[in-house]
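--- STAGE predict ---
source: upstream dedup step, 1 unique chain passed
mode: sequence only
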Amino acid sequence: MDSTLETSQQKEKLLKALYTLQLKSNTTLQTASPLLSSQRGMGMVTQHQVHQLADKTKSLCRDLDNIKNLLHYHQNELVRQIPNPTGSRYGCVSGIHCSQDGSIYVTAEGAPWVHVLSSTGQVLKSLPCWQTGREGGSFLPEDVTVTRAGMVAVADMINGAVWVFSPHTSPSKGEWIKIGKVGSPRGVGVDSTGKILVADYAQGQVCSFALDHAFKTLNIRSVPNLQGPRYISPAPNGGFVVSEECGDVKVFMSSHKLVCSLSSKYGHQFGNPAGVCVDVEGSVVVADEQHRTVHLFPESGAPVCLVSAGLRRPAGVACSPFGHLFVADTGENCVKVFKYHVRPRQLLGTL
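--- STAGE serialize ---
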């Protein structure tokens, strides 16, 4: 059968099923509502039938959420590959961050650079990771983010520090400011209030702190008892999402109270969760290094596999506001760009 015809028939069948559900539920509601409001008893409806309907309704709502999510996303739609701008000499791409304007910030294992790329992979700017002053010398960023003030921040695991690049301190090029000691910082992010989030791998904790105008840390807090925290991302509720090596992915509130672990909430089995991010709709996206996949965890419904093939060793991930997913694939030393978000034709815009 012609694939176009088959797809049209499937669409028609799905629309008919959804329309039938809508009509039947509306009709039943119009009949039941006045009776339930006015008469004292339940007529001939038994308690068992109420429980049975409630359970079936809950199951049907889950099924409808899953259908909605599957219609909403693409799988394995690779649109381009961006080679490591540092080349293969220093190591493979690892950390990645996408700004609101679609610019991509990339770090590589063993490379003293942060590269700023356009969404198509063109190098817009490169920041050498070199500390000024008496100490001098380069440092190696593990992960990268951008503060609310537009400054680049990186995690430096070897020196146990977070560095923030201030373009205003030097008249010519700016300079990196070292922000204290943080143990073994592996992942870095910025929450919705502007505080810097750091995944401290060896100490098994997440640290958060604000910076004043002189780059001094304020309101330092920590979340302990994590199993090898790797990557971190802000969550829509003001909290954060953090991946644990060989473990789980956990979501915390702004108060640092645990909301849930994704494995428990969704019944999902992780291998080695790595990069995490949250898209514009509040769904959590997780790269699994061992399984070589990327899954999306929506607010409601089952997880959706966005990338099931074509990755060798996924590390950092980032979502753009324009429906693109960026995956740092250390196995092939490049950034792979997937179009994962389906939008109505009239809203495609720059896609």
